[in-house]
Amino acid sequence: MFDKRRLRSLDCKCFGVRYLESLQRVRVLLPFLAGVLLLGGCSPQSAPGTVEDSMTSGRIRIVCAPEALGLIAQEQSSFSALYPDATIELRAGSSRDAIAALFADECDLAVITRELEPEERRAAVQGGLEMEGYRFAQDAVVMVTQSGNPVENVAIDAVRGIYRGEVKRWSEVGGPNTEVVPVVQSHRSDMAAFFRQQVMGGEPVKAAVIEEQSDSTVLARVGSIPYSIGYVSMAGSSPRTKPLRLSSLTGLPYWKPDLEAVYRGEYPLTRYFNLYMRTSGPKLASGFITYVTSFEGQKLVREFGLVPAAVPVRFVRRSPMLSTHSRGEPSKTP
């Protein structure tokens, strides 16, 4: 999947670019959901006026997963300022909705915060639908707790135990003898689906939990309840909460969810944000993708708090890595 040679590179206090690498662009066969079959009779609206469809002009429609909506809105605003003849209609929809709309020709670009499901790939092949896909950002799923909680580290197996209802007190993971209050995101969100797959191993959450609808509401709830725990995107932050360093297994190193650890694959819970378009779609869709994956577009990704995925990156400092104790001093990194 992914991308073209870039002429410029990111550079900032935390990281810069050492050299440009060739990023492969391949065609991705996309999903034909069962629901799409019901929508297949719909045809796209014709673009008003006489504006030419080009890489920088015309009209396109984007359906974007809510977790990427703020970032894509910034990309849209910046692109439109540069190219006023481009009209981009942006609306929110789940990743499944975005793919369905793309298959039904109800949008020209789908922005999703996960990889394609196997059934989506199979349906695309069966439907003879030819697509292109591009990774444009990398995110970390971060476990957060109230700032006053002395616990700094937690392993994924301990998190699984909390949400199974097996680990009920912080003292079982090296903290005080207080009850753990788990918070989850809406079961319909990509974030919740990722958590179920990567943390719970596909099992349902069995603990008594508080459900919230977004990163902001999870952060607000966790910040207001002593000794609670929840999960959010790495772009989310609150002065009343703190991220926990995470290990893939008890006894292994714990990593802070920062840009470097995510980029290098050291942080255990990461996912990609993807752009998909039909190969026969409007030229403007390709132009917008080119912008998002360019130096300027990737700079917006970094400023939003995510890791750029379309340019090579060199870091000038390493993430602090703690020992395997819940309250330890930072150890030397390799």
CATH topology of the largest domain: D-Maltodextrin-Binding Protein, domain 2
Radius of gyration: 21 Å
Largest sheet: 11 strands, mixed
Q: Give the C-level CATH assignment of the largest domain.
A: Alpha Beta
| Beta strand count | 18
The portion of residues assigned to helices is: 25-40%
Describe the fold and architecture.
It is built from ten helices and 18 strands. The protein has 334 residues and is α/β, with parallel strands linked by helices. It has two domains: 15-137 and 274-312, D-Maltodextrin-Binding Protein, domain 2, CATH 3.40.190; 140-267, D-Maltodextrin-Binding Protein, domain 2, CATH 3.40.190. Strands 2, 3, 4, 5, 6, 8, 9, 10, 11, 14 and 15 form an eleven-stranded mixed sheet that branches. It has a three-stranded antiparallel sheet with strand order 13-17-18, with no helix packed on it. It has a two-stranded antiparallel sheet with strand order 1-16. The chain is elongated. The two termini are 32 Å apart. Mean pLDDT is 84; it is low at 1-7, 11-44 and 323-334.
Ordered list of secondary-structure elements with their pairings:
Layout: E1 15-16, E2 27-28, H1 34-39, E3 58-64, H2 66-82, E4 86-92, H3 95-103, E5 109-112, H4 118-127, E6 131-146, E7 153-155, H5 156-164, E8 181-185, H6 190-198, E9 210-212, H7 215-224, E10 228-233, E11 241-243, E12 245-247, E13 254-255, H8 259-263, E14 270-278, H9 283-292, H10 295-304, E15 307-308, E16 314-315, E17 321-322, E18 330-331
Parallel strand pairs: 3-4, 3-5, 7-12, 8-9, 8-10
Antiparallel strand pairs: 1-16, 2-6, 5-14, 6-10, 6-11, 6-14, 6-15, 13-17, 17-18
